Amino acid sequence: MAIIPASRQYQSDRPQIWDHLKQAIANTSGFHRWQLERSAQDTQIQDLNLDHQVKLYLRETLETLAY
User: Fold this and answer.
1) Within its chain, how far is the Cα of 39 from the centroid?
2) What pLDDT is attached to residue 67?
3) 1 pLDDT higher than 60
4) What is the dihedral of CA 20, 31, 50, 24, to 10 degrees?
5) What's the pLDDT score for residue 4?
6) Do residues 25 and 58 make contact, with C-beta atoms less than 8 angstroms apart?
7) Which of 57, 20, 51, 55 lies closest to 35 in space, CA to CA?
8) Could you tell me which residues come within 8 angstroms of residue 60 by beta carbon, excluding any fewer than 6 positions away?
9) 41 is in which domain, residue-wise?
10) Rounded CA gap, 23 and 16, in Å?
11) Full DSSP string of 5-50
12) In a domain? residue 43
């Protein structure tokens, strides 16, 4: 059996980890509230796929926390 360095194994798991994390974030009440607020301000938000919406939500949340 070949030994896979941890970094290589981690990289191969990244898409799966991101998918699980993305789904967990998308199921939170904070994300749902953000979607409602954003869709009232910007109707194009609904055209973005879930991946882009979660990334935008995280970016805005982190920017808010940085203040």
Assistant:
1) 17
2) 79
3) no
4) 10
5) 59
6) yes
7) 57
8) 34
9) 33-67
10) 11
11) PHHHHHHHHHHHHHHHHHHHHHTSHHHHHHHHHHHHH-GGGGGS-H
12) yes
Q: Of 29, 22, 20, nearest to 52 (Cα)?
A: 22
Instruction: Report if residue 55 sits inside a domain.
Output: yes
At residue 2, the pLDDT reads 59
Give the whole-angstrom CA distance, residue 58 versus residue 54: 6
Place of tokens 């939500």: 57
Count of domains observed in the chain: 1
Instruction: State residue 43's pLDDT score.
Output: 84
The 10s digit of each residue's pLDDT in 5-63 is 666 666 778 999 999 999 999 999 999 999 999 999 988 888 999 999 999 999 999 99
